[in-house]
Design a protein that fits this description.
The protein is mainly alpha-helical. 79% of the residues lie in helices and 0% in strands.
């Protein structure tokens, strides 16, 4: 029971860290365009992160992404020490990338840590290769889809507003950024909260054969308090900010105006809603970064700072293997006790 409670507490701590690590995804453009102050922006984003709980629970009616994450490792190989090691490894990598101001993926960190500890315990037979391959593919597909959608939306809006005076349209786009930021924050809540739910669900499933009171048979039986606490944790984390990454996302990739902020956030939100429908856990960081690149490319390709983009993509590719190594190493240490 103590080990299960420790996993739940650490998983919720990861969810909190995920919130402030990924707060920049929802608020970077709205802060850099000065539509809201940093404090107002995090409150705004946190509120809509939490709204996503009610959308998942009462409108969508299921937590599909949580189910996908819980199946990263085959059920017969899941144990509480494996999950504990995976979560600790994910927390270490998330804190390191936050400290360095690198907009990496909290999603892939968690999945990598979970898979790495399972491989260390039971070999590669323990992981569900098809699930991990699908998730890994979206490391590249999510930013590309975001970039493509942003490019198309930006050109469409520019065409529709071609006869509108720029100075007159600016206040409209500033107001619309409130809407687009809210839409993206909902997508962030829908996607990222469920990843931690999937890990906690895996722990509760592993606890069931042990006769621990909180054990469950499957993700379908996950208690409401798990979902609620995950959404609360990520919302609280979002309220604490993450200003180094805000600077990277909002100013270093390309200069962002209110028009570009609206387009990037709208494109990012649409991409997240698509992946929610497909039940694929993706990185909100990858999605919004791709959308910002797509908007910048509508001005000219040189408007995008490709050096910064290359550094981010390197971090994206490294996230799963590095967090897997951390998870494996921590499992090795745990197994010694």
């Amino acid at each position: 029971m103590i080990l299960l409670i420790a996993i739940i507490v650490l998983a919720l701590a990861f969810d909190f860290i995920n919130g402030f690590h990924d707060a920049a995804n929802s608020i970077s453009t709205i802060v850099t365009t000065k539509v809201l102050t940093p404090f107002q922006a995090v409150i705004w984003a946190a509120f809509f992160n939490f709204v996503a709980f009610f959308i998942s629970k009462y409108i969508i009616g299921e937590f599909g992404i949580a189910n996908t994450v819980s199946k990263t490792v085959y059920e017969q190989y899941i144990t509480l020490p494996i999950i504990l090691a995976g979560v600790i490894g994910a927390i270490i990598w998330n804190l390191f990338t936050w400290w360095r101001g690198i907009p990496s993926s909290s999603s892939h960190t968690l999945i990598g840590g979970f898979a790495g500890s399972a491989i260390m315990a039971n070999g590669f037979a323990a992981i569900h290769g098809a699930v991990i391959f699908k998730i890994a593919m979206f490391i590249f597909l999510a930013p590309f889809i975001g970039m493509l959608v942003a490019f198309i939306v930006a050109l469409s809006v520019l065409y529709i507003c071609r006869h509108v005076d720029h100075q007159k349209s600016e206040p409209w786009f500033r107001h619309l950024q409130l809407v687009s930021s809210a839409l993206f924050s909902i997508g962030h809540g829908l996607n990222d909260s469920q990843k931690v739910m999937g890990i906690i669900a895996a722990a509760l499933i592993a606890a069931h054969p042990l006769g621990i009171g909180m054990g469950i048979h499957s993700v379908a039986n996950i208690p409401d308090w798990v979902a609620f606490s995950c959404f609360v944790s990520i919302s609280a984390g979002t309220m604490s900010g993450g200003w180094k990454i805000v600077k990277t996302m909002g100013t270093k990739i390309t200069k962002v105006t209110p028009f570009e902020g609206v387009v990037a956030e709208t494109a990012g939100a649409l991409t997240l809603y698509l992946t929610e429908y497909l039940k694929i856990p993706v990185s909100t960081t990858h999605t919004i970064a791709g959308s910002i690149i797509g908007v910048g490319a509508t001005k000219r390709l040189s408007a995008v700072r490709w050096g910064i983009t290359k550094d981010m993509m390197t971090a994206w590719v490294l996230t799963i293997p590095v967090s897997a190594l951390l998870g494996a190493g921590i499992y090795l240490i745990i197994s010694l006790f």
